[in-house]
Amino acid sequence: xxxxxxxxxxxxxxxxxxxxxxxxxxxxxxxxxxxxxxxxxxxxxxxxxxxxxxxxxxxxxxxxxxxxxxxxxxxxxxxxxxxxxxxxxxxxxxxxxxxxxxxxxxxxxxxxxxxxxxxxxxxxxxxxxxxxxxxxxxxxxxxxxxxxxxxxxxxxxxxxxxxxxxxxxxxxxxxxxxxxxxxxxxxxxxxxxxxxxxxxxxxxxxxxxxxxxxxxxxxxxxxxxxxxxxxxxxxxx
Length: 237
Description:
Layout: E1 9-13, H1 17-23, E2 29-33, H2 36-41, H3 47-58, E3 63-66, H4 72-83, E4 89-94, H5 104-112, E5 117-122, H6 125-135, E6 141-145, H7 147-152, H8 158-168, E7 174-178, H9 184-193, E8 197-201, H10 202-205, H11 215-233
Parallel strand pairs: 1-2, 1-8, 2-3, 3-4, 4-5, 5-6, 6-7, 7-8
C-alpha cells in the first residue's frame, strides 16, 4: 500500500507553526490538531494569538483546538471563544475533567447549540457510548480514541476502535479519530478498520514515504546505514 491509497484522513498533530506551514503543501494532510501539551513543548505563551495565527496558515482546513480549564463553566466560555474563531474550528473537550467528572452535559449543551466538537482522551467503550449520545443532536464532530495509549497499556486497541465505529454508524455527522499513533503501521491499521481520521505527529509524517517500500531494499539500506556509520565513527577492532 502506498500513502496515496489511504482512505483514512491524515490530520497533522502538533503546534510548530513552521512545520504546520510546510505541511499545508502536503496533499496527504487533510486537517490539523493540537493540544496544550504540544503548545507548551514549543514555547507558546499566548493561546489566542497562536490560534489566530495557525488559522491564517491552514486556510480553512479543519483544526481542533482544546479548552484547558478544569471547571465546566469556564470550559464553556473557552469553547465559545475558540468556536468563534472560525467555522473550521472543532473545540476539543476532554471526556472528563481532572476530578473524573464527566463532561457529558457540557458536550451535549455545546453540541446542541451548534458548536463543532472533538471529544478527546477517550479510552473505553462506555466513554464512547456517553459521547455519541451527547453529540447525537449536534453538527459535525469527532470522537477521539487514544488508540496509541491503549496499546501502551498492553491492550489491543483495534476491537475498541471497531466497536466505536459500530456505535457511531447511525450518526453520519460523527467521525472517529485514531489518536496518538505510535508507528506507521497504525496508519495502515486505521485505514483497514475504516477509521475516518488518524492524527499523525510531524515526525511520523516524515515516514509516510516508507509505506509500501520493498523490504529487501529496506534491508539493504539498513545494512548500508550500519556500515556507513561505523566508518564515519572511525571504529576499529
